[in-house]
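Let's study my pick:
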Amino acid sequence: MKKLKMLAALLVVTLVTACAGPSKSTVDEGAAGAAQGGAASAGVGDGGTGQGGGMGTDAAGSTLGGPGASQENRIIYFEFDRFDIKPEYNAILQAHARYLSSNSSARVRLEGHADERGSREYNIGLGEKRAQSVRNVLLLQGVVSDQITTVSFGEERPAVIGSDEEAWSLNRRVEIVYGQ
């Protein structure tokens, strides 16, 4: 039954990703009102990270999911002005979902970010939509909603300072942070 649920979740994720065309996102009403510190949603209490839950490894031997995952396996990158998940991140998100599903006390915060282009309000909304996209994938794979919080920092916390495509591409992301 669990394998059937996982297969159904993968099918839904694949279909959503494949069918998602270029979409112009707009500012959420709640996100637009969040000023300085970012917009937050789906709050939960503090929790530990739990134990166990083998997460698999990538070709280099790095853990794909859970708090022990490498930095590169805890960041999901996005295309310009988009919030759909690229297929290359499916295995990483599956590994995080397996960890969270097998560690009920684990908590994760999904931090949405945008590059510097666009207004501050627009980028807060876009960062929130990116975080919600990752959240929805995790929920489809069996993670309990109480284990996940989302926050959008918009353009306020760039990973790389710069005004070129290389910098922008590294700033369009969702970071998966455990223990929050």
User: Anything to note?
Assistant: The chain is about 35% helix and 15% strand. The chain has one domain: 2-20+27-178. Residues 120-140 form the longest helix (21 residues).
